[in-house]
Amino acid sequence: MLRRAAILMDIYEQIVELRRGGRRGAVATIVNVRGSIPSFKTAKMLVRDDGSIVGTIGGGCVEADVWQAAREVMESEKPRTLKFDLNQDPKYDTGLVCGGTLEVFVEPVLPPAILYVFGAGHVAFNLCAVAANAGFEVTVTDDRSSYATKERFPAAREVHALDFEEATQKLDPNESSSIVIVTRGHRDDMRILCWAVQTRARYVGMIGSKRKVIEIFKALQSEGVPAHLFDRVHAPVGIDIGAITPEEIAVAITAELIAVRRHASSALPHLSWFKGAREESDATATAEAIEEGEQNL
Fold first, then answer.
1. Given a cut of 60, is residue 95 above it in pLDDT?
2. Is 90 left (phi over 0), alpha (psi -120 to 50) or beta?
3. Number of H helices, E strands in the chain
4. Partner of 285 at 20 to 30 A CA spacing, among 1, 72, 178, 234?
């Protein structure tokens, strides 16, 4: 029992270490047992993103199959339950006196969902509160020390009063991170977007109207930024819910962040009209409303 407890503690410590390092993994747990198996119920095994493991669920072919499933789970970010019948499948015949059945639950271990918000105006103020309530760890950056304060953003994990160029040199978003650009100026937006599209962040969003987005995309392409990097930019940002006020815009942005984090499979009515052919289209009422919100930053 002491050895089992020590192994479990080691696995839990390794999970914490993985998440702190922005890495992925998957935990496999035997949740149901019938008959004799080469392990015990509640046995756990952690599979890291580099393929290494901590703990065991009994070894052999079962463990090999679970290892493969764990790799798939950490990529899909969706849990799975595996069932094994050691009586019926000859590949599990190891010559041991084992002939039971077992179920193994495999769940993903994911790094924290970090949201980097550039800008500290009205939209950023509301976005920080809404996104934090939705489970995002928010980092706010603005070049105005009077705006970028912990008192103004109590829900933020970090608040930086830095020049935007200095901030982007210090930050290193991982694959589970999101970036939302809501500064008060087009030039700042352009410089931050140039950096953002070249990071590993899974989500990049920028506030603004159709006109603003076209101008910034074209300006960056003329500076040599490859056009395909803009395919993943959500701009204008947020799901189209008819948002007008900064509070409503924050909800629209957070909804899109959640949809991306949860791999929503249904088509989303968001405003990223620039994707695909990159041809001009009429601005929607919501896009114009977002621009009004931006001007109020």
1. no
2. alpha
3. 8, 11
4. 178
Query: Average pLDDT, stretch 196-205?
Result: 96
Radius of gyration of the chain (CA): 24
Are 234 and 270 in contact by the 8 Å Cβ rule? The answer is: yes
Token pair belonging to 273? 């009209």
The β-bridge partners of 179 are 116, 204
Domains along the sequence of the chain with CATH: 2-12+22-109 (no CATH), 114-295 (3.40.50.720)
Angle at 28 between CA 27 and CA 31, to 5 degrees: 130
- The size of the chain, in residues, is 297
CB burial of 149-169 (b: ≥16 within 10 Å; e: otherwise) equals: beebbebbeebbbbebeebbe
**Rounded alpha-carbon distances, angstroms, from residue 261 to 70, 112, 150, 176:** 19, 11, 26, 8
Q: What mean pLDDT do residues 223-235 have?
A: 93
